[in-house]
């Protein structure tokens, strides 16, 4: 895709693009434990959450996750509201857990096999693993260079058709960086970072203006 613009017949503006396929090298797995208790049982609810946490931590370490990778967040306490005013007051306790690891394959397998935790009576919710690419800044620089070269090649082809040639680069501006699942084409105006898949495509555009001669 490109656009053209002339100013006195001596400049040409085009849009160049570049894309690079990458494989996620870092993953974040978020999960949580919950307990719903009556108001008078909040104390015992905290005790249940603590016991559940030990079960979950044992499951994780048994499957090769280092203890230092297991981030345990503070327990949150939320009141459950009922439309019936006569219902007893209840609360939900939630213990959130996060795993941040470069072992993408291992954490993917573990997140798919949490039955043993649930089978022990733990109300355990496993969220989809989020996949990230840690070298995004480096890739962006490389892609901007490639996108600028693409813009220059397009400008040269367009100029040649009118008997002209491309001179110096006058100005350039980069578009947003898109990180999408491999093969996806849903580009957003403000940039996207799709964390749902391991295989990704990073793309960037550059709008460049060249002097014609």
Topology:
Layout lengths: L10 E13 L2 E13 L3 H21 L7 E3 L3 E5 L9 E12 L2 H8 L3 H4 L5 E3 L3 E3 L3 H26 L4 E9 L3 E4 L10 E2 L5 E14 L1
Parallel strand pairs: 9-10
Antiparallel strand pairs: 1-11, 2-5, 2-6, 2-7, 3-5, 4-5, 8-11, 9-11
What does this structure look like?
The protein has 213 residues and is an alpha+beta fold. 28% of the residues lie in helices and 38% in strands. The chain contains four helices and eleven strands, in the order ββαβββααββαββββ. It has helices at 42-62, 104-111, 115-118, 136-161, and strands at residues 11-23, 26-38, 70-72, 76-80, 90-101, 124-126, 130-132, 166-174, 178-181, 192-193, 199-212. The strands form two sheets. Strands 2, 3, 4, 5, 6 and 7 form a six-stranded antiparallel beta sheet that branches. Strands 1, 8, 9, 10 and 11 form a five-stranded mixed beta sheet that branches. It is elongated and about 85 Å long. It starts with 10 loop residues before the first strand and ends with a strand. The model has no long low-confidence stretch (mean pLDDT 90).
